[in-house]
Every structure is written in C-alpha cells, then in structure tokens.
Specification:
The relative contact order is 0.20. The longest helix has 16 residues, at 29-44. The chain has six helices and five strands. The two termini are 19 Å apart. The protein has one domain (4-174): Peptide deformylase (Peptide Deformylase). It has helices at 29-44, 128-141, 146-149, 152-157, 159-168, 170-174; strands at 49-51, 61-64, 74-92, 102-115, 121-127. The protein is an alpha+beta fold and 175 residues long. The protein is globular and about 45 Å long. It binds nickel (II) ion. Nickel (II) ion binds at residues 94-96, 136, 140.
Length: 175
C-alpha cells in the first residue's frame, strides 16, 4: 500500500532513483490515487513524463503526456520497452536532476507493451519525442538516470552541478 500523501518529487542522488522498481501486483484504487498524485507532480513541474520512483515509490509504473496536459496522459504499468533500429543523440533533461540538460544516446524508435489503469494490456510503436520519453521513463524504473547515461565529457561538464545536487539532496540518500 502506497501512502500517496507522502509522495514528493525525488531528486538525484535519492536511493529510490538508483534501484530496480518492483512490479505492480494489482491495479486498485491505491494505484489510481498514485497515478493522480504523479500527474499533479508532473504537471506542477512542467514535465512530459514521470516514473513512480520520481514520486518516491519503487514501482514499475510511469506516465507520459507529450503536450503536458492532464487529458494527454498515458499510463504505463509493468511496461517493457524494446528498442528498434538506429540510435540518435538528443538533449534531455529530467525533473529529478534539475538544471542539467545533456545529450543522451537513445533509439529513434521503440516498441512498448504495458497495462493501462483499466487493466488492459496494449502494445504501441513509438518514434521521436514519444520514443525518447518511453526510454527515459523505462530507465527510471530500472534505476538508471541521465546522470548514468551521459557521456564522460558531459560528466566533466556537469560535475559541479551534480556535486551540488548530491550535497543538496544528501538526506534523501540516507533515508
Ligand atoms: Ni527523468
């Protein structure tokens, strides 16, 4: 049972962002409340996607709204994301790593299979920003962030900012 009143945006280097999330066992009112809470957090922070670990909950669930509206939100529960074709290098940010924008290598296309809030399984092929968002959010439930994905030069460029974040959000790691 997730205490959704305690859900807050989590920041690097919080432990919950670095671990593999657990499958959602049952899609019930608690999960629906969690999705509502995640929606609020995502829209408040002007994101296009949010994974449950970013709300402090280590579950395999994320939401995406490419146009940043409530109506545009899609829910992905226990998803699998399979890359298709070629790689691409595009700048990305992450709500959990504020003020850092860095080029990340991802596949141009991918396939996603997931379950929605009505417990229906669906499969889609995605490209462009959608494909990128799916891969970014899937990374989150695998415990991977753009801080792990960035190249070695970017790591040097962003070293100070990452260090500052690590100091600012140190308590989150020790919790
Ligand atoms: Ni992110």
């Amino acid at each position: 049972m997730v205490d959704t009143d305690k859900c807050r945006i989590t920041h690097y280097p919080a432990k919950v962002l670095a671990g593999k999330a657990q499958p959602v066992e049952k899609i019930d009112d608690n999960i629906r409340r969690l999705v509502e809470k995640m929606t609020d957090i995502m829209l408040e922070n002007k994101g296009v996607g949010l994974a449950a670990p970013q709300a402090g909950v280590p579950l395999r669930l994320f939401i995406i709204s490419l146009d940043q509206t409530k109506e545009g939100i899609k829910v992905f529960i226990n998803p699998t994301v399979t890359p298709i074709g070629e790689l691409d290098l595009v700048e990305e940010g992450c709500l959990s790593i504020p003020d850092i924008y860095t080029k990340i290598r991802r596949y141009k296309k991918c396939k996603v299979t997931a379950t929605d809030l009505a417990s229906n399984e669906f499969t889609e092929e995605a490209e462009g920003l959608y494909a990128r968002a799916l891969q970014h959010e899937f990374d989150h439930i695998e415990g991977i962030t753009i801080a792990d994905r960035m190249g070695s030069t970017a790591k040097i460029v962003h070293r100070k900012k990452l260090k500052k974040l690590a100091e600012e959000y140190k308590e989150a790691v020790e919790e």
